[in-house]
Amino acid sequence: MSGAVEPGKQVVPLSEALEKLARLEQENKLAEADDLANRMLAAKPDHPHILHLAGIVAYRNGRVEQAIARMEQAEALAPEMALYPRNMCEVYRGAGRLEDALRAGRRAVELAPNDSRAYFNLALIHYERLELDESVRMAERAIELDPDYAEAHFERAEALLLAGRMREGWESYEWRFKLKQAEGMLPKTDKPQWDGQPLPPGKLLIIGDQGFGDCIQFGRLIPWAALLAPQPVLACSGELVPILRQIPGAGKIVTRWEDTGDYDAYIPLSGLPRLAGIDTGNVPPSGYLSPAPALVREWAGKLDRLTPKGKQRIALVWAGRPTHKNDKKRTLKLGQFAPLFAREDLAIITVQKGDSIAQVGGYYGCAPLVNLGPEIGDFLDTMAILQSVDRLVTIDTSVAHIAGASNVPTSLVLPYAPDWRWLLNREDTPWYQSVRIFRQQRPYDWGGVVERVAAGL
Q1: CB 76 within 8 A of CB 47
Q2: How far is 272 from 206, CA to CA, in rounded Å?
Q3: Rounded CA gap, 169 and 157, in Å?
Q4: Smallest Cα–Cα separation from 432: which of 211, 254, 270, 217?
Q5: Measured distance CA(33)–CA(207) in Å, rounded
Q6: In sequence order, which ranges of 247-370 are alpha helices (DSSP H)?
Q7: Which strands, in side-by-side order, build the sheet including 204-207?
C-alpha cells in the first residue's frame, strides 16, 4: 500500500496522512489523532513512523505502556532513526524509567550529535537523576548548537539553582520569559526592565509573575525594591492581592495592565533575587505574612467545635494543581498518608482544594478527620486556619509557601528531584525557617517518606 485510510474510506498519500497525524497531536486534538493513528496502524501495522507517532498519541492520551510498546517497535524497525530514541527519552522519563531514558538519550546524541533537542532531553534526565553538573553540561551543549534555545537556558538555570549556584543560575533564569508558556506574563511595553537603579516614587512596576507560590516566596523582596524605587506599583492576580498587600513597601496594587499607570521601568517579582544578589546565605527571613486576627478567631472557634480536645492537629495537603508541569511527581493520594491516620493522638485537618477533595469520601483511619477544603474561600482563610494547627504536612504547593511565610511549623514532602528552590541534601531551607523537608530516597518512590514525617511529629 502507498496510502492510508482516511475518513470516508478514501485513500490518501501516506506522507499526507502522517503529516495530518503529527499536526493533530501538536494541536492537542488527541481524540481525532487517536482515531487516525488506529486506522493507519490497521492499514500498515509495521510502518515505523506510524508506530512512532501512534506511540506519541497514546502517551498523550495517558496510555503509557502502549506508547512505549509502539515506540520500541518503531525503533527496532528503524534503529538508525535518531528522532525515535530522542522522543522515547521523554516518554521513558514520564514513565519514571530513568535508566531507559538515559540509554535512549545517549543513543539519540550518538545518532545525531548536532541535534540540540537531543542534548536538552539528556539535560532533563540528568536533572531527574540529580546529576546536576552533567545536566548543566548537556544544557550548555544544546545552547552551543542553538544559542536562542530558551528551554535549554531555563533548564541550565534550574540545575544551577538546585545545586545552590544561585548567582550563576539567576542569569540563565532570565530566559524564562522566552518560553512559550510565558506568553502574556509581561505587559506589552517599550519601557525597560528595571536594572536596580533608583527611581522616583511610583515609577517602578513589579509584576507578580509565575505561580502563587513563587509570588509568595519572592514577595519578601518587595521592601528591598521599595528602598530604591519607593511605592512601586504591584500588578498581580486577584487571588494574591490580600496576601501581597500585607508586605510593607508596595504602593498601589492592580490586577489589570491598564491600571498600572505611568511607570518608568518594570521588573518581574521573580527577577528581584537576581538584582538583590540573593544566594543561600542572604535570603531575607520568613515571617513576613500574618493573618487577620478576627479571621484567626473565627476559624479557631470552628476548629475547637469540630476537633476532639487533647489531640495534635495536623493540617494536610496531598495534591497540587493537575496542570502544573511537575504535578505527576509531586502529588500523592490521600491514602498514602495512612501512617498519619493510624495515630490516635492526631486529628487531621484537610486544607486541600480542588477535585482531590473527593478522596476524603474514602477516608478510613483512627485519627478523626475534619475536611475544611470546601469552606476555604481564599489564601487568607488558609493562613488563618494554619494558626490553629500544630503542624502542616504538605506536598510542594502554594500552601507550603503560605505556611512558611507565616512561620507555621511545616513538614514538606518532596520528590527525589525537587523544584530548584528546595536545594539538595538538607532538611531545612533558607527560604522558610519553620519548614522541615522530607525527601524521596529514590525517584518516584514515596516509600518511607510519610513514615518519617509521622515519626517526626
Answers
A1: no
A2: 9
A3: 4
A4: 217
A5: 39
A6: 272-276, 293-306, 327-330, 338-341
A7: 253-254, 233-235, 204-207, 265-268
Distance (Å, whole) CA 232 – CA 221: 12
Q: What is the DSSP string of 211-268?
A: -HHHHHHHGGGHHHHHHHSSS-EEE--GGGHHHHTTSTT---EESSGGGS-S-SEEEE
Q: Radius of gyration over alpha carbons of the chain, in Å? A: 25
391-413 pLDDT, tens digit per residue, is 999 999 999 999 999 999 999 99
Mean pLDDT over residues 222-243, rounded?
Answer: 96
Phi, psi (rounded to 5 degrees) for 191:
-75, 150
**Residue 34, C-beta contacts closer than 8 angstroms, at least 6 positions apart:** 57, 58, 61
Which among 432, 436, 437 is positioned nearest to 288, based on CA atoms? 432
Q: What is the pTM of this model?
A: 0.92
Nearest-angstrom CA–CA distance, 255 and 259: 8
Per DSSP, 375 falls in state G
What pLDDT band is residue 182 in, cutting at 50, 70 and 90? confident
The DSSP secondary-structure symbol of 278 reads -
Helix, strand, coil fractions of the chain, as percent rounded to 5: 50, 10, 35
Inter-residue contact 313 to 300 (CB < 8 Å): no
Cα three-residue angle 307-308-311, rounded to 5 degrees: 100
Length of the chain: 457
CB-based contacts of 127: which residues, under 8 Å, 6+ apart? 135, 155, 158, 159, 162, 417
Of 387, 393, 398, nearest in space to 239 by CA? 398
Cell of 77: 524497525
Max CA separation in the chain (angstroms): 76
φ, ψ for residue 119 (rounded to 5)? Answer: -70, -35
Per the listing, cell 512558611 goes with: 404
Q: How far apart are CA 223 and CA 285, in angstroms?
A: 12
pLDDT at 2: 43
C-alpha 183/C-alpha 241 separation (Å) is: 22
Which of 163-172, 320-329, 371-380, 447-456 shows the lowest mean pLDDT across its residues?
A: 320-329
Handedness of CA 343, 344, 349, 353 (dihedral sign): positive
Edge-to-edge strand ranges of the sheet holding 346-350: 369-371, 346-350, 312-317, 391-394, 410-414, 435-439
Residue 341 grid coordinates: 491516620
For the segment 6-32, what is each residue's pLDDT rounded down to a tens digit? 444 555 688 899 999 999 999 999 999
Query: What separation in angstroms does the CA of 101 have from each of 81, 105, 124?
Result: 16, 6, 10
**Helix/strand/coil for 96:** coil
410 membership: H or E segment, kind and range: strand 410-414
Task: Find the helix or strand (DSSP H, E) in which 254 lies.
Answer: strand 253-254
